[in-house]
Specification:
Blueprint lengths: L11 E6 L4 E3 L10 E3 L5 E5 L5 E5 L6 E3 L47 E6 L112
Antiparallel strand pairs: 1-2, 1-7, 3-6, 4-5
């Protein structure tokens, strides 16, 4: 992802209701109104009779992100407003649009959760704020696009790279890949030899003459676990 040399008034923003659809908001946001208010983390030092002190740490308070929107429609599509994101019922998708078509019975005390993503970037290819991390190696001719290296001799249970998908609850139907390695090469005119691997997993274990080193584990470990819970 390309980041600007300094933070300015140009950014991408998206708002997504929990289990809803991501809505892009940059075109109707007042850029001068954006403010970040991280939650306070109150604590207190209390003296005791022994001449020492006890430190009392309170939970972190809620933070705030404030911004002004120029709402122009009742629709739920990107770039028009958030009116139907706060109605507490069902969004209206047919003309003429109304603010709500199915209010819950009684007083609705449900507080919906939202994800707000804000992205400052000078990358013209970035069109959504939720695409927070994208690497472009279009100009790469040699070397490595992504390189993670550790020379630590004290590494015990640490991991250099972790990708985790950890979901529980009433899951939505899903498809695709958690991690994908793909390659597409197409030669237009010339003659070229392509000899490389899409993915290489290599492990080297060395032992000096005086050392005692027991190499265990796997180069690649693939494990699938299915759990059946009976109630």
């Amino acid at each position: 992802m390309a980041f600007p040399d300094m933070w300015d008034e140009v950014f991408l923003m998206s708002v997504e209701l929990a289990a809803g659809t991501e809505i892009q908001m940059a075109t109707i946001i007042d850029p001068t109104s954006l403010e970040f208010g991280p939650g306070d983390y109150p604590s207190e030092s209390k003296p005791n009779a022994a001449g020492g002190r006890l430190w009392s740490q309170n939970p972190e308070e809620d933070g705030e992100i404030t911004f002004d929107i120029w709402g122009i429609e009742l629709d739920i599509t990107s770039g028009v407003g958030l009116f139907q994101q706060f109605i507490g019922g069902a969004a209206d998708a047919s003309e003429p649009l109304t603010s709500d078509i199915a209010w819950p019975a009684g007083v609705n005390r449900v507080r919906d959760l939202y994800r707000i993503a804000i992205l400052f970037t000078n990358d013209p290819a970035a069109t959504t704020a939720a695409g927070l991390f994208r690497l472009s190696a279009d100009g790469l001719t040699s070397g490595k696009g992504v390189f993670v290296e550790s020379t630590s001799i004290a590494l015990t249970s640490g991991e250099l790279f972790t990708v985790l998908l950890n979901s529980s609850g009433e899951l939505a139907a899903n498809s695709g890949n958690v991690v994908s390695f793909s390659s597409h090469l197409e030669e237009d005119a010339g003659t070229v030899t392509s000899d490389y691997d899409v993915a290489l997993f290599s492990r080297i274990d060395k032992q000096s003459f005086a050392a005692q080193y027991d190499a265990q584990g796997s180069v690649v470990k693939i494990q699938a676990v299915e759990r059946l819970v009976c109630i």
